[in-house]
Amino acid sequence: MIIKTVLMLLVFITPLVIINTGIVESTLLLFALYITSGFGMAGIGMGIMHDAIHNSYSKNQKVNQYLGYTLNLIGANASIWRIQHNVLHHTFTNIEEADDDINPPFFLRFTPHTKRHGIHKFQHIYSWFFYGLSTVSWVTAKDFVRMARFKKMGFFKGGKTFNMELMKVIGWKALSFTFVLILPMIMSPQAWWVVLLAFISMHFVTGLMITTVFQLAHIVPTTEYPLPNEEGVVEGDWASHQLFTTSNFSPKSRLFSWCIGGLNYQIEHHLLPNICHVHYRKISHIVAQTAKEYGLPYHNNHNFVSAVGEHFKMLRQLGRMDNLRAG
């Protein structure tokens, strides 16, 4: 984890330092450096902050706290992510409205219980473009939208406490944007709009990688989308719910798993979120055997390509059918 942390931070920061020196005159090199930084940003998101905010990076909570701030460094916010991901997604996985990960804009449909529009018929084609733009939306507007919604839900206290938290979010974003976009616009010999396009290309790489990896775990034909009963309660126990709504992929590729922070073992992560991802591969054999013993599903796509194909198929089904298996 230490080696990965140092490497991913260097991959993210080093290209930006080079850009900020103002020595990059080639447009092609400018884009190459920003895109390289995008790979580092994705690595920070999947391999550092994700474990840290789950308190699974280290037994030392201060280490987890400070490494969780790497998310703030790349323009998002650890406090908001903790609510959206740790609390809502992990507690209410694939439950419409409760799981924030399956509550996208109207032009995307991630659950059979969401109202279908005509445009959804083509979402298996255009979704990938919006996946690429997802982190641009995240670092600019989405955090503020979520913060306002989470305040109404009671996660943030009102008055001075909320205003102080809001100022922290704005301050971190100002720091990130200054280093990643404003200084390059000032220092680079390139036109401002070229730097902006390069910045967007960095985020496109990051967004496409991160969003695709997370989607392959939950939006596939084998996973289910449970609904609460009339009393607002989802039947079944929490652990079984995670097995019904989550899928693994590409379990045999150690290098791939290392690069994406073990997120190909999503079942293990959902069942044991407080365990560092470096242990998921060995744990997976125990989890799979236990699921088999109790007659519970253990969804798994054997490689990344097949998982992408299954997600593509699910997007197409959701875009064309009003009623799918609700689980």
Automatic annotation (TrEMBL):
Its EC number is 1.14.19.-. Keywords: Membrane, Oxidoreductase, Transmembrane, Transmembrane helix. Signal peptide: none annotated. It is an enzyme of class 1 (oxidoreductase). Residues 29-299 form the Fatty acid desaturase domain. GO terms for molecular function: oxidoreductase activity. The chain crosses the membrane at residues 6-24, 31-49, 125-145, 166-186, 192-214. It comes from the Bacteria. This is Acyl-CoA desaturase.
